[in-house]
Write a structure and sequence with these properties.
mainly alpha; 4 helices; elongated
């Protein structure tokens, strides 16, 4: 790279860098990089979910909901207790 690190990027360079980085973020790129692991994980999760009793399904749904809400609270900026 012929650019000195203390020089800012041009808008075109910044956009290209952001697009490259965005292609590596999230669950979809991970699935593309690990297709067998994703397939086995999905199969195992489906098998476990299908073998649960109705009470177990309600409990699993509640746990997933709590985990999603806790993640949302952390993302928004609160602590784990919702403050």
């Amino acid at each position: 790279m012929d650019r000195r690190p203390d020089q800012p990027l041009t808008p075109v360079e910044a956009k290209a860098r952001l697009r490259r980085a965005a292609g590596r973020v999230g669950w979809a790129p991970w699935v593309r990089r690990h297709p067998r692991t994703a397939l086995l994980g999905g199969f195992a999760a489906g098998f476990l979910a299908g073998s649960l009793s109705p009470r177990g399904r309600r409990r699993a749904a509640w746990l997933l909901e709590e985990a999603a809400l806790a993640g949302l609270r952390l993302f928004v900026g609160g602590d784990r207790r919702g403050n």
